[in-house]
C-alpha cells in the first residue's frame, strides 16, 4: 500500500524544539484508522497522572514534557490502548497509541 508520509502536527508559534521536549502522536484504532475524541493521559515513570488531552478529529495529540520515561494511555468508546516513550532530550518525539477493541 502506498501513501503519503505522516505529516505530524503543526506546533504553536514560538515553540523552540531545541529547548522543549514535545511528545506527539496519533490515537489509532486496531484497523489503523484515526480515533478522534479519545482521552489521552500522560503518566510519569512511576505511573502517576501528569496531564490529559482529548485527541483531535484526526486522532492527534501533543504534550510538552521533560526527558524521561512516560506512558501514554488512550481511553475511548472504541477501546483503550497504551504505549511507552522515553525522550532523551529536547526535540519532537512521536509515539502513536493503538487501541484494542
Automatic annotation (TrEMBL):
InterPro entries: CarboxyPept-like_regulatory (IPR008969), DUF1416 (IPR010814). Keywords: Isopeptide bond, Ubl conjugation. This is DUF1416 domain-containing protein. It comes from Williamsia herbipolensis. The lineage of its organism: Bacteria, Bacillati, Actinomycetota, Actinomycetes, Mycobacteriales.
